[in-house]
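Bit of a strange request maybe. I'm writing a small parser for structure token strings and I need a real example to test against, not something I typed by hand. Could someone generate the tokens for this chain?
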Amino acid sequence: MKELNLVESMVGTGKPYILKITKVKTSSRNVREDAAEFLQPIYKALDDDQEHFVLIFLTAGKKGIVTGYKVLFSGGQENIIVDPKVIFRNALLFGATAIVLSHNHPSEDLEPNEADISITKRCIEAGMLLGIQVVDHIIISPSGEWISLKQERKELFFSLPMMTIGW
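Reply from user aminoacidic:
Good idea to test on real output. This should exercise your parser:
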């Protein structure tokens, strides 16, 4: 059901990694496993000695169709600067109704740090205001191991109150 032959068209172009994909559906597994599998070839094509932040764009619906992805930020060996404004500008441009955040830890230590938790929470809050769901935040290592912040830190995704906007 999945079509993951996408990395070849982006490697070595010297341009930002942007690719529009259609009809890549999640399987009967869960979104975090599908996202981690989808991200593997993308991160393999990037320098594994520095951090990169990749955003996956999804459409609405239970099956969530990937409409594209983009490498938004690249940083140093131990950190990266992530701007939620850039994340959601791209999500809106791709027409996403949901997104999966991801970044790598070159150190192989998959434990989320304070910055990882903070940016996840900020993006969830911003997404609530814009009607764009943050489905998960995947942290991946150069060896291919990964964790899901939604699984490891459920309170980030389920502790925020529903927001209502009144005039």
